[in-house]
Amino acid sequence: MKTTTQQREHLEALIGRAEQEAKRQPRRYRAKVGLLALLGYLVIFGMLFTLVAISVGIGWAALASTTFAILLLKKKLIVVILAMMYVLLRALWVKFEPPTGYRLTAKHYPKLFERLKTLSRQLRAPRIHQVILTPEYNAAIVQTPRLGVFGFPKNTLFLGLELLLSLSPAQAEAVIAHELGHLSAAHSRFAGWIYRVRLSWQRIVAGLERQQNIGASLMRRFFDWYAPTFAAYSFALARTNEFAADAVAAQLTSRHDAAQALVNTYVVSGLVNEHFWTPFLKQADTSELPTAPFKPLRDFLRQPPFETADLHAKVAEALKVATGHYDTHPALSDRLQALQTEAPLPKMPADSAARAWLGGELDRVLADFDADWLKNNDDKWRERYRYCQEGRQTLAELSQQASETLSAAQHWQLAVLTEEFAPDIDPLPLFQSYRAAHADADADFVIGRLLLKRDDSAGIAAIEAAIAAKPELTLEGCRWLDYFYRRRGDEAAADDCLKRAERQMDINRAAGLERDTLTRKDRFVKPRADEASLAAIRAAAAEVAGVKRVWLAEKPMQHYPEAKTYAVVFAKSAFANEKKLTRQLLERLSLPHTLFVLAKSGSHAAIAKRAIKAGSEIYRR
Fold this sequence. Notes:
Number of strands: 8
Strand content: 5-15%
Structural class: alpha/beta
Number of helices: 25
Strand order of the largest sheet: 1-2-4-3
Shape: globular
Helix content: 55-70%
Oligomer: single chain
């Protein structure tokens, strides 16, 4: 099996070759993409044809030969064949959950649906079957296949309320036209088809992941190869499709509106988070009663307190971002260059698309969103308030004590609470003081993080020390090192961090597989369990009627050996139900270890026999 790094490098190489081929031999490239797209359908319809052929063949043979019909019934071959057909059909029938949310209807929002109808007609785009309003700063079209892998999609347009509040009607039309442009026949039937196929295979793979049967497993094997291969090879076309969709948006509105919508989409959402959502949520630190956000957000976006210098800085920052390998959406600079326009400063409209399209219903929509937000966040808000009150009180108490009288736990808590609740005090000396007295990987990590945020290279050694002592900190440590190196422009060191993180991901995946499975090939040894764990297992066995004896064996771990994994094998009375006893034991066992509970003579008897032989008997009734 390829490592994460090998998979990434293979994908990048495939994308690179596809992009080069798309430039040098565009017709050959499009032909390859088209054939790859057809391959997925050939596999699916090939399976369907096989099912039909088997059914017809069996029926014809049974009618033509009484002997064959009797053989089918007598040897129960018909059951095997029907079971195989059922498994394949079940795998083909991937069920997709329909999109849900705050649904807008033409009856209540005629202006919005008029514009959608006009845009769809101009673009010769498929019909939008429903519109769902979301809180996010986003817009998207989701196609939900009504016939599983056979398509017949229902098109849902998702519109973000925050997006509509911050764009003019023309700018919002540019955003919607871009989304419709992906599915449109107005600029490229082939590109639109490939775009839909990419989305379909992504959703089918997601649907297959939820199915647990042999047929789905076989199809997953194919799509595990096919989906990423098709996605990578069609990447160049998908990115071209983004530029084409931008061009369609500019054509239907104007280049200025399309550019303004792009800049607002890339920049304004971050500014709103910084200037509205962060201060709004910060209120939970000092106020016990939650307040609703969406009406205040509407008022905020009418006259946002964005400084011109800050706007210039944010736009410049967004323009520096280069187009990456893993997002079909090009970077802002590339999209504006394709539109042949400069980057305008973010600008809030005098009359928002939300006001123009939702009209008199906007206040009711905001009230509904506010009510829903309060319902979902009331408990979290109050919990945050209590946490902050307790944290500040504890900080005040600890601050009054002399440092030499603090225990190790109190010293650590003082440093942590100071960082969180005392923004005017530098927490670094407190963490360094704690670390000087106590060897602690977590302290090394926090010290490294604080230093790297200050662009101090001394943080590298602290992060490395934390990782060496506590390998589970590797991923987060590499993230901070990557942040530091890339900010300094050291791409080679940053790439080394990426590869190191990927190696750790492989280790974590292998460790998870090690702990999640028990097979006949696994090795067992005598358990090194502590007395508390042994007592807990014995107590659980004593509470479950039908359990006569219990053996315990340990499965040695190659990765993270300090985390114990045990096989708990039980012998049951003659007429006791194996599944019921297993469930009852598991319900009573809450230990900080991975436990596999299996019956001595049950469905996993071979594994149980090996565990008994290597382990120890710890309970007998």
